[in-house]
Amino acid sequence: MFMDLTISYIGRVSDDLYTIAAVQINSGFVVSLDVAARLYPKLLEKLETPYKEQVETGLKQQPYHVNFSPIASPYLVIAGEIGDHVHTNDNESYLPFKAEHFI
Known about the structure:
Number of domains: 1
Strand order of the largest sheet: 1-2-3-8-5
Radius of gyration: 13 Å
Distance between the termini: 10 Å
Number of helices: 2
Structural class: alpha+beta
Order of helices and strands: EEEHHEEEEE
Largest sheet: 5 strands, mixed, barrel
């Protein structure tokens, strides 16, 4: 479980997968989480209204993501487990967590 996550980015990767980038407040570590489409409604339930509206609008149209300002970003508690697929691009390789529950 991650406590005190500040959400900096939410994006739609495909019709069945979303992604979240967040900063863990106490450590400053950046966390990447994959979110199955079946959990998307639960994510929206936990967001405060202005953030929820931003996400709903932003993920329905290109570029299918929302960036949040460090001074105005949502906080969530997310329970998850380590993923099983390493993603690699020109700049990095990373292993996202799999979101299981939004608390």
